[in-house]
Amino acid sequence: MKDVTARGGRVLGLALTAIVLGLVAASAATAADPVKIALVAALSGQSAKSGEGITRGLTIAIDWEKVVFMNVWAAGTAVTRNGATPNYVFRVSAVDELVDKALVQYAIRTYGAKSPGLILINNPWGESNDKGLTAAIGENKIRKAGVEKFEQNDVDMVPQLTRLRGAGADALFLIGSAAPGAQVMKGLERMSWSVPVVSHWGISGGRFAELAGPAAKNVHFIQTYSFFGKQNEIGQKVLAALKAKYPDVKGPGDVIPPVGVANAYDAMMILALGIEKAGSTDGDRIRQALEDLPSYRGLIKSYTKPFTPANHDALNENDYVMVKYEGEQIVPVK
Questions:
Q1: Which of 73, 86, 206, 232 gets the most CB atoms within 10 Å of its CB?
Q2: Which of 74, 81, 132, 77 is nearest to 267 (CA)?
Q3: Which fold is adopted by the domain 2-94+230-245+256-316?
């Protein structure tokens, strides 16, 4: 947002203001007054790092109120591919359907997986990836060993893992957030089961490295960006700004989660371009402008055309990178 406001300080002469809502607050507000939460989203758009269920729930109010919703985290395929016409939900983030294809291909290419198992969070995000991974496994003509699910607060994953090992799983696809993801790794340690684990990015959104301990390094997972390696001009500028603003950021490994930072940066800049092109804060005019933006040189990549009426996802499978933990830092897999 600082980069946006630095360009003359405003967009269309109006200041942008960030309104932060936690998941519990957002959920309660949505249930109590869905129109209010849509309007609070922002002047004309919202960048969301939300749970899948809350994000889907917001789309109902958003479509009703014609408020543009710019999602920077939730990867559920149906978040943007929701059947709404017109569709006010846009995304600069991963898409489960594409992520799942990439994860399966990575497991086959890297580990020679022939019978992977799925261990998933029991919520809409888990369901989205269950469908996507199952389809991708079928497309690659390998066998699915089985599917096991866990709750967010589960602390013992040994029963699920035991069933997957008994079913002949030679690799695991992990879909979950940091805390239960760490319990999966601890369960594998207790079982002395050295099976490859390939994960979605949910584990990077919390204290996974701390909670999983040494086993954290055994997971390879997906991201849309890494601040390691040679950075383009925008990457250098963003990293320098983060170091200047946050004393704890000494280098690229201290940007946590890097995917959230990178997605949000490009989303905010693209949204500002949409508002400027629309020449208005009217939601429908901004939606149409976003669907017809020219090329934009961003942090993650150079966007030839971020969105179209048929595609509200700015990133695709060619924009993903595989990473792992080294200590508490997220680094690219070499």
A1: 73
A2: 74
A3: Rossmann fold (3.40.50)
Quickly tell me which residue has 């849509």 as its tokens.
Answer: 38
DSSP, collapsed to helix, strand or coil, labels residue 253 as helix
Exposed e or buried b per residue across 130-164, where buried means at least 16 C-beta atoms within 10 angstroms of its C-beta: bebbeebbeeeebebbbbbbbeeebeebeebbebb
Give the tokens for residue 275. Answer: 């508002």
Q: How many CB atoms lie within 10 A of CB 259?
A: 27
Overall pTM surpassing 0.90 (yes/no): no
Q: Note the Cα 17 to chain centre separation in Å.
A: 23
> Fold match between 2-94+230-245+256-316 and 97-223?
yes
288, exposed or middle or buried, with CB in 10 Å at 0-12, 13-18, 19+?
middle
What are the domain boundaries of the chain?
2-94+230-245+256-316, 97-223
d(CA 180, CA 121): 8
* Per-residue pLDDT tens over the stretch 49-78: 445 555 556 666 677 778 888 889 888 888
